[in-house]
Design goal:
about 100 residues; alpha+beta; Homing Intron 3 (I-Ppo) Encoded Endonuclease, Chain A
Length: about 100
């Protein structure tokens, strides 16, 4: 049985347990998802389960991607501060 969250993410119930549909798709098509890692949508479509649009990454990479694409409302100067603390921030891109 499937459903959608208020944020638009697909959910699947398997043996009575709810799972994120995009994590299931990534787990079936990619390498293992390490603990505390997330599955990012590089297409920015929360309902998408297309494996080429999914990237296994750390949450900080997901947040950097969100900020870079303008989907966040950071405090003034937050992006510059992040780049100062982590110079690689401005060069990081999700793997193709």
């Amino acid at each position: 049985m499937g459903a959608t969250t208020a944020d638009g993410y697909g959910r699947l119930k398997i043996d009575g347990v709810l799972y994120s549909a995009h994590r299931i798709a990534a787990a079936l098509s990619k390498e293992d998802i390490p603990p505390r890692f997330v599955v990012m949508h590089i297409c920015d479509n929360p309902r998408c389960c297309n494996p080429p649009h999914l990237v296994v990454a750390q949450q900080r990479h997901n947040v950097m991607d969100m900020v870079r694409k303008g989907r966040a409302n950071p405090m003034p100067g937050a992006l510059a501060y992040a780049e100062t603390k982590n110079p690689m921030f401005r060069f990081w891109r999700p793997p193709a």
